[in-house]
Design a protein that fits this description.
Layout: H1 5-10, E1 12-16, E2 19-23, H2 30-33, H3 38-49, E3 61-66, E4 69-74, E5 84-92, E6 100-106, E7 111-116, E8 127-131, E9 134-141, E10 144-150, E11 156-162, E12 169-172, E13 175-176, E14 183-184, E15 189-195, E16 201-206
Length: 207
């Protein structure tokens, strides 16, 4: 069954193909400028969505998963002032120090961008998870991980490196810069910090 010109002029709900179309004869701006006029639009959506097994619900947040990344935004002036809480093991990518958390609360008006370590592919393999540089020339052995990091000069590199065990030695351009406190046992990551070089900084980690 199609939709005729008369149908479109009158408005209403019409069967079309395997679904239905609801034509609302209202200027779109009226949903904004007229008090409570948006209720009709909401009820129209609800009438299509609600079924005996599902109901239309409203929330004040957006939560998106893409691979090992979690993106969260909590709206202010929305249906509630509830914060959004995330639990797990993750790196805060909005913080330049790349801290590791097991719980984080995002308040209305705030956003979060996290790397979720529970969804890292090949998590038994050493790898740079997050860094202010690009990684080249990776080399792996049973007890070491080497790579070259390149990024513009006069910038500082902060990196989180996933390792199978706690590091014993961290060589940066031939100098041991291992710091025990930089190892995070919960995430099994080591926090690296050094000055960048566009020609490359050689990093060798042994455990």
């Amino acid at each position: 069954m199609g939709i005729t010109v008369k149908d479109s002029q009158m408005g209403g709900v019409f069967a079309y193909g395997k679904g239905a179309v609801n034509i609302i004869r209202t200027d779109p701006k009226d949903f904004v400028i007229r008090a409570d006029n948006s209720a009709a639009l909401v009820e129209s959506v609800r009438s299509f969505y609600d079924t005996p097994t599902s109901k239309l619900t409203f929330k004040n947040n957006f939560y998106l998963q893409r691979g090992m990344f979690d993106l969260i935004a909590v709206l202010d002036e929305s249906v509630s002032d509830e914060p959004f809480k995330i639990d797990g093991v993750f790196i805060d990518l909005f913080d330049p120090k790349l801290p590791v958390y097991t719980s984080r609360t995002i308040k209305p008006g705030e956003q979060g961008y996290f790397l979720n370590l529970e969804r890292v592919e090949n998590s038994s393999k050493p790898q740079v998870l997050a860094a202010a540089s690009r990684v080249y020339e990776e080399d792996f052995t049973a007890s070491s991980y080497k790579f070259v990091a390149k990024s513009p000069i006069n910038t500082t590199n902060i990196a989180r490196v996933l390792l199978p065990r706690q590091a014993k030695k961290v060589m940066v351009n031939g100098t041991d810069q291992f710091e025990k406190e930089n190892w995070d046992p919960t995430s099994k990551t080591y926090l690296l910090e050094f000055e960048n070089d566009p020609d490359g900084v050689e990093v060798a980690i042994k455990w």
